[in-house]
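My main concern about presentation is that the manuscript never shows what a single data entry looks like. The format is easy to grasp once an entry is in front of the reader. For illustration, here is how one protein appears when written out as sequence plus structure tokens:
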Amino acid sequence: MNPKERIEELTKILTEANYRYYVLDDPKLADFEYDRFLRELEELEAVHPELASMDSPTKRVGGEALSQFEKVEHPVPLMSLQDVFSMEELNAFVEKVRESEPEAEFSVEPKIDGLSVALEYVDGRFLRGATRGDGSVGEDVTENLKTIRAIPMTLENAPSRLIVRGEVFMPKKSFEKLNAHQEQEGKPLFANPRNAAAGSLRQLDPKIAAKRGLDIYIFNIQLAEGVDFTSHSQSLEYLRDRKFKVIPHKKLQTVDQIDAEVLSINDHREQLSCDIDGAVIKVEDLRQRERLGTTAKFPRWAAAYKYPPEIKPTVVEDIVVQVGRTGVLTPKAVVRPVRLAGTTVTNATLHNQDFITQRDIRIGDTVLIRKAGEIIPEILEVDLSKRPEGTWAYHLPERCPVCGAKTEKDEDGAFLRCTGAECPAQLSRNIAHFVSRDAMDIDGLGSAIVDGLIEKGLVKSPADIYYLTLDDVRSLWKSGSTAAKKLLASIENSKQQDVSRLIYALGIRQVGAKTGKVLASAFGSLDALMEADLETLTQIPDVGGITAENIRRWFSQEQSRHLVERLRQAGVNFESKRVITDARFSGMTFVLTGALSKFTREEAAEKIELLGGKASGSVSKKTSYVVVGENAGSKERKARELGIPILTEDEFLEMIQ
């Protein structure tokens, strides 16, 4: 079989596997087989790029980042629906339709809580996808939509032009995984899957969207040139035959049947993979829809029944404090079990001290509780008439409940944070940061290995990494000693890293990799930095008052001092190799773009910084030079627009020699 035939065969196999996994939820190809075929296809396309198609399965992990979203005018407007909030209003809608169309039947389907989009196909190939926007004009999010595996890239027996409408959503499992990652990274949590889906679909970098696990249900045909349908159900069957993931729906006639189905969808919503916020009721016959027409805002043939948020009373039995991986103290109310939105709720978020104080929530209080965004249980208010005697106002602890270190407020005062450098609650994240590429760069210490070391009690602080033995780590790999020896060699080599990396690795708040380099150059050693007072610190470029306070406070903590001494005893380098003797680039900012051939971007940035300059990731009026390699993109264009000098790699090399 020649390369062209094999590429076509692999593309067909992987496309079918995606369809069975993401649309039918009935995978036939084992994960390892899928990965093996995908790697083979990637290798073939690398050798024969001229044979790689734009809709190849290898292209569904996100392309180049965009600078902005282009506007798209919808050929057929994406109208919103009129909302109804009670069975009386729903029945009134049905009766009004029947005044004009006495024989009307209706389709009832879940109302997915996501983001509405239009997908356009030309000659069976996915051309473009856009958000709803205002219904007439949306944004081009094609590259992000390509990362959703349930969207077919090609269609069989398709019309010359087809536009379908669907709802992009984030499955509950993907949402939980995303928020766990956000928490680990110390980033704000998403309130609900809809917000997460909307934020993911509007990422300028499609690679980020690809990691979010988005999904879609298709629920309408907007345009199908040369194809006629008589009913809504017929059009959805047409889409299902072309391997779209179609919204589940039922065709019903009587008011009682419609009411029962709307209530049934609500009763079974917890069994769905995604969030819903109601049910959609549509006229089934498409000719009847045309006769009913539309208002200025809504079609007269459809309505959205919105489920009311369920609110119930319960009692706060206790308030417990959890310490997250970033050190943030999060209070949680333990409540008397109550049934909400199909699940039993036993606790509710209290967010922070301000939330507790504003609502004056106390242990023993009777409170009203609901699910915020249908996901996170939240206390709405306290029933003061039922407050028992002897209660007292609750305040978060001044010391970490896990390690006993002092707690401190964030800069904005919203959260309390543990200051312990060796706090067990933060250990996994602290080590992951300590060994990361821009920090101590210890290869082989992935999250699974770190968790294994923690579970075995072999590491209780980042410094313990340097005291591991071969016997300690060899059991963590099936391959035994070989991988263990490589890890120990990587740990040993990291001892010689420049102290700028160590400063960053310590995890001092607001001290990033660049600030670590600035501090290393300014003080020359970790010991000198430890002894610096606030006045000295604030005189260093790029170190403001808050950052200086964070540095002083971190080094004043007992756990921090213990960590530093353990690192010293292990032989970790505390001296700087970044002493600037030639400041020819002082006050200059460089931007690197494109593929460099003589050194990596990291190496080029290092040379710029050692000559007193700054390396930035974005072009602005303050940029001094833009260094361009092969396939430079939008940054080069912006530099030309702003009149910023552009250097080739050779010209840059001349400047640094």
